[in-house]
Each structure stands twice: as C-alpha cells, then as structure tokens.
Amino acid sequence: MRRRQFLLAALASAGAWRWAAAANRKFAVTVVVKSLRNQFFTIMLDGARKHHADHAAEYQLRLEGLQSEGDVKAQVAMLQRAIDRRDDALIVAPADSRAVMPLLLKAIAQGMLVVNIDNKLDERVLAHENVNIPFVGPSNFSGARKVGDYVLAALKPGSKVGIIEGLPQAINAKSRSDGFRESIRIAGMELAGMRWGDWETDKGYQAALSLLDAVPDLSALLCGNDNMAIGAVKAVTERHRTGKVLIGGYDNIPAAAPYIASGAIYATADQHPALQMQYALDLVLQALSKHVGQAELQSIVQTPVELIKRTAT
C-alpha cells in the first residue's frame, strides 16, 4: 500500500513537471522494439518514421531496438536511458513480458506515459502493481486460430500436428500457441509435439527437424512467426517431405512472400505492424496534448489481423 501511495504521489509531482516543460518544446517520444533484424519490426519502425514525418512539428522521435530478441539486459539499458533523458512517452515491445516491468513502473513514477505494443506485458504483474499500461495490438490468439483453422482444413481428421513456438517468456508466443492448440482441438487433430524456435530462422529449422524426426507421419507444422516457418520449410525440404507437411506462419513479413506464393508456407497472418505503431503514436500524442494521465489511458487498442494465403493463379 505504501508503495502504491508513493507511486501516486510521484505521478502527480512528475506530471506537473511534464506539462510545464511540454509548453516550451516538442514532446519527446522513444520507441523500443525487440529486434532490428526481424523484418516485422523494421516495418513497424518504418511506420513510426512515416507517422513522425506527418507530425514532425509535434514531437521528437527516437527509435531503438535489439540485435537479438532475447537480449533483455540490452533492452533494460535502453529503457533506463529514456528515463534518464526524462522523455515524455515510451512505447515498448518487450523482449520479456515480466523482466522490463520495474523499468516501466519507474518511468510512470517519473511522469512518462508508457504504452505497450506487440508483445503484451504480464497482466498478473499489472494487476499486482495496480497500474494501467495500454496495449496496442491484435489478438494473437485469434490470428493464430485463423492460420491454424485454414491449414488444418486441408488435412484428414486425426492428422498429427506440431507447434514451433517463439521465446518461452513472451506472452504473444504463448497466445499464438494457444490459438494453434484450439485449432487442433476443434479440427479433431493430434498435437504430436512442440518445440521452441526463439523467433529465429535457424532455431526454427532445428526445431522443425526435431519434430520431423520424432514424428515420421507429421502432417503440419504451425509456427509462431514467419522466420521460424521459413526455417521449417528448409527442414521439410531436407527430409523430403515437401507437399506432405503443411506449414503455417505468422507476421506476413516480406521474406515470406515467395514461400507463400509457392505454397511452401500454406498460410500466415498479417497483423499490420506499421499500423500498430501508428495507433500507438496517435494514442500517445493525443494523451500528451490533452494532458491525459497514465491511469486514464484507454487500456486496450485493438488492431486488425488477417489471414494471408496463396493467391490463386
């Protein structure tokens, strides 16, 4: 209780400083994403640049990201630098849904607005701390259901299916796997195994090889992102299972386009990363300009996700 009272007092004090300072300068907004190497996030950052070009008179923009999606320590350092600069707002796609929370609470206590994008923060921690950090993004569960339902509709009932999941500590990885599991259950298929590919092509390849070798009659691989799906395509090709094992992905990154066109990736989901970022920046700018505090921010801003499949020729 004492901690929460301190947080509320700090918010009031820091908020007064922020509004006074903002009257004399552009708002300072920092975006921190999970990866600079994953095309999904480069598209997201391009969306931020486009938004900033249209609103350059209103805010300054700083973009940062990780070289490795699991490098939580580096992301914590980026968040700390934003706090030290006393930025007005912070938009973060967390590498770990729990580990970054102390830094985000610190930012809020200082008076910064904090918005969560792409990978949802752990709701149990948010509830325990009694703090509102808006999430801007789609339902990963629903997006994965769309992919899973489409892929499995092409299989015979009772077919064996494997799942390749992203990082274990990422909430969106678990949500996508849960969506795939629901598709498997509804379709009357068998979940034959699951491996982790950590969002990366090489690790997705290794995970797919492991499943293919463990389950010789595997009929489908449902992958938590397109990088891992591309790795799965390589594994399926090496094991001479092309056409016998259907592959589902997620993200619709440019690198996946030729695989989708050829049918090597049977379907994926597009969650429009540039649009997600634009929604998040709109939320931040409106809140800053109207002096809306963290607690009053809209808690969820739903963004679209759509099924992408091979176009008939």
Characterize the structure shown.
This protein is of the alpha/beta class and 313 residues long. The chain has two domains: 2-138 and 273-303, Response regulator (Rossmann fold, 3-Layer(aba) Sandwich), CATH 3.40.50.2300; 140-270, Rossmann fold. It is 47% helix and 19% strand. It has eleven helices and twelve strands. It has a six-stranded parallel sheet with strand order 2-1-3-4-5-11, with helices on both faces. It has a four-stranded parallel sheet with strand order 7-6-8-9, with helices on both faces. A two-stranded antiparallel ribbon has the order 10-12. Strand 3, helix 4 and strand 4 form a beta-alpha-beta unit. Helix 1 crosses helix 4 (101-110) and helix 2 (39-54) packs parallel to helix 11 (273-289). 48% of the residues are buried. Mean pLDDT is 92; it is low at 1-22. Residues 30-289 form the Periplasmic binding protein domain. One of its GO terms (cellular component) is cell envelope. Residues 1-22 form the signal peptide. It comes from Chromobacterium sinusclupearum. Keywords: Signal.
